[in-house]
Every structure is written in C-alpha cells, then in structure tokens.
Amino acid sequence: MNNITDNNTYNLIKSALGATNVRQSVISNNISNVNTSNFKASKVEFEDTLKNVLDQNSISMRYTNEKHMGMALNDIQPEIIKDDTTEIKLNGNNVDMEKEMVDMAANQILYNSLVQQANKKLSNLSYVISGGR
C-alpha cells in the first residue's frame, strides 16, 4: 500500500516548507544583527538547487514498490550561504534592511502558498479515503 510519505509531490512540498522555515530564521538573524559590527548577512539557496537537480535528472532513484520507481525529493536540503563580499556600513556590516524585509515578505507568500498546496493535497487524499463523501 502506498504511504503519503512516498508521494513525490508531498515530499517536494515538505522540503520546500522546510526551506522556507530555514529562510525565515536566517532573515530574522540578519535583521537582529543589523547593528552588529562586522556581521555578514546570510541567505538560503534552495530553489536553484532544486531546479538544477530536476534539470540534470540527477535525483537518486529508489524503489517504492517492486513494479514502480520513484524519486527521492526529500534529499534536497536548503543551503545557508554567507555573503562576505559586500559591506554596506562603515562598521563592516552588510545587512540591507530593505532587502531583508522584501525577502521576508516574499518568503511569507511562498510559505502561505505551500501550505495551501499541502492542504489541497491532504484534502484530496481525505476525499479519496472517504469514498467521495
């Protein structure tokens, strides 16, 4: 029997939600250190990594059933990258508050849309399980 955690769409949504959580933490950390001398802002890379993996078809394959093969999308993890190249303030800090606030808003929109997609997926499964009632 197929388990919901074996579903590629579910795993992709779950990984993306995890990435938005990590991104929110990184943005919050950047904002909280806006006045810290020599602090360097970080960012989270996930979408580009996912796109590259999907474009290269290099997702590791695994058997979910002896007659099926599926992709292990939950292996793709967000990566935190520190930006050491720029300096916005005289104290060596490179946190741009406007950019961080825009990134935070965009991340919140992405999170909300992913939650909606997860809810639709679970609603569809519930509908099927209940026999359409």
TrEMBL record:
GO cellular component assignments: bacterial-type flagellum basal body, rod
Protein name: Flagellar basal body rod protein FlgB
Location(s) in or outside the cell: Bacterial flagellum basal body
Any Pfam family the entry gives: Flg_bb_rod
Family: Belongs to the flagella basal body rod proteins family.
Keywords, in A-Z order: Bacterial flagellum, Cell projection, Cilium, Flagellum
Signal sequence bounds: none
Assembly and oligomerization: The basal body constitutes a major portion of the flagellar organelle and consists of a number of rings mounted on a central rod.
Residue stretches making up the Flagellar basal body rod protein N-terminal domain: 15-40
Superkingdom in the source lineage: Bacteria
GO terms under biological process: bacterial-type flagellum-dependent swarming motility
Keyword Cytoplasm: no
InterPro entries to which the protein is assigned, alphabetical: Flag_bb_rod_N (IPR001444), Flagellar_basal_body_rod_CS (IPR019776), FlgB (IPR006300)
Function: Structural component of flagellum, the bacterial motility apparatus. Part of the rod structure of flagellar basal body.
